[in-house]
Write a structure and sequence with these properties.
It is a single chain. The chain is mainly α and 82 residues long. α2 packs antiparallel against α3. The chain is flat, with a radius of gyration of 13 Å. It is built from four helices and no strands.
């Protein structure tokens, strides 16, 4: 899993994309978890993935009320990256 795959699934018009934002949440977490799993905890990649996962989780908690109301706009999830 990678961010370009997530983007493709978000933009899919043929029904093969995400059914809800919780699926996106799961895939984003998978990216960070894999980066931490496959890189030593002292490696920069592991450290950065851990930091970004923490930021993502905080942002997710802020967006959760909107997700529950199904009013969320997909790009908001990634706005904290840049």
């Amino acid at each position: 899993m990678d961010f370009s795959t997530i983007e493709k699934k978000m933009n899919a018009k043929d029904g093969s994309g995400y059914k809800n934002v919780r699926e996106i949440y799961s895939d984003v977490r998978l990216i960070f978890k894999n980066a931490m799993k496959y890189n030593n905890e002292k490696h920069d990649i592991h450290i950065m993935a851990k930091s970004l996962l923490e930021k993502f989780e905080k942002k997710w908690l802020q967006l959760l009320p909107k997700v529950a109301q199904a009013v969320i706009c997909f790009p908001q999830i990634f706005s904290f990256f840049g």
